[in-house]
Give the backbone structure.
Amino acid sequence: MEIQTPDWVKHAVFYQIFPDRFARAKQPHKKLLKSMRWEDWDATPTLQGYKGGDLWGVMEKLDYIQDLGVNAIYFTPIFQSASNHRYHTHDYYQVDPMLGGNEAFRDLLEAAHARDIKIVLDGVFNHSSRGFFFFHDVLENGSNSPWVDWFRIHDFPLHPYTGEFPAGYEGWAGNRALPVFNHDNPEVREYIMEIAEYWIKFGADGWRLDVPFEVTTPGFWQEFRDRVKAINPEAYIVGEVWGDSREWLDGTQFDGVMNYLFAGPTIAFAAGDRVVLDQVQNRDYQPYPPMFAGEYARKMQDLIELYPWEIQLTQLNLLASHDTARLMTIAGGDRASIELSTLLLMTFPGAPSIYYGDEVGLPGAIDPDSRRGFPLESNWDYEIYECHRQLVKVRHAHPVLRTGDYKVIYAEGTTYAFSRTLGDQSVIVAVNVGTVPAKLSIDWSTNLKLVYGKAGLHRHDNKLEIELSERSGCIAI
């Protein structure tokens, strides 16, 4: 079977936005909440507090997003919910009124698409919430509810709020706020398929699927793909799977996954012993212990070989997300760790994803702290911002960095280099994560010029010598 994935994703740079925390609209709009006292924007986030970001605010920042070089946005959930992160869905057909409702989302789609920026939504289809109407009916009417078989219910009465009694139903990860759907029920299956179709018809460019590995009903994700792609063959379907994802990346289900198998080793290599362990332990990815170039090379080579090439090019590569601490905090505030990691991110096969605020050095410990308000410009780290902006620009300027093959050409000690080749064009990316200057020599027969970073390039016969200062990297074409 020939695997087909959306071509635009291979050329995309994603920006992940947590809507409550990115931007509050400055322009007046018709709002349900006119005098709401939001949590202070710059205060430490709380589990239940709202800061009042909305989709109009995102629209007002599209100039900034476009100038960064981003051409795709992945939103964490935007549907009506009683939580600031909105993974507790109340109504899958309504954009949360705090975000501006369906009207604001339609306006945002039009404005983004006019700039050739794609929009991918977060689909929370494993579980709903206690406030979801169908589940609420079960709470009101017990076994008489027509929706009983929509959920995994064990015993009546149900106890959705009182922890001293068994819940009586299955909640995701034991959380009674998140009743799990019964996906074996054909009505539930059809309901979810229709939601997926509805928002693709509305204009969304794809779905990021929350904990899709929890849905084990045979054929579910195959049908999901078929029905979404029937409406828009170029729609992007990306799953939140943290480990080996071959089970879902066979060409019949997802186009890619959130590539934590890239994130973990890359941070372990670039940040090394600077990694703050209490920010990464007991998480589902391993950016520790420190890694030398040889081991990093093996990890990347294994990762490249794990999936079909067509899938590799549509993986969603990342360094941080709403589910992890931010890179600035993980690396103990070390700017070089961020710049080296970002260089490796922007030059790896697949679509790079920037977690909002990481490009300006926003810190944040594990959630809820990693979900801070986007900082005022006076609080940006401009060196980190310029690093992101330059690297995105170089990636867009050179197709070889997007779809060229990937080959490790040097991996010793703290120094790592790889080539990417597309047709007759080749590029070398080299990094030195060590604290002393490094020199590497490789077989290379053509002249190269630097397009990013500072390095000494010297060619003698068919040998290329690259001199790197400590904690630095370069791209040469």
Remarks:
- The chain has two domains: 7-126+181-397, 404-476.
- The CA atoms of residues 323 and 365 lie 10 Å apart.
- The two ends are 35 Å apart (CA to CA).
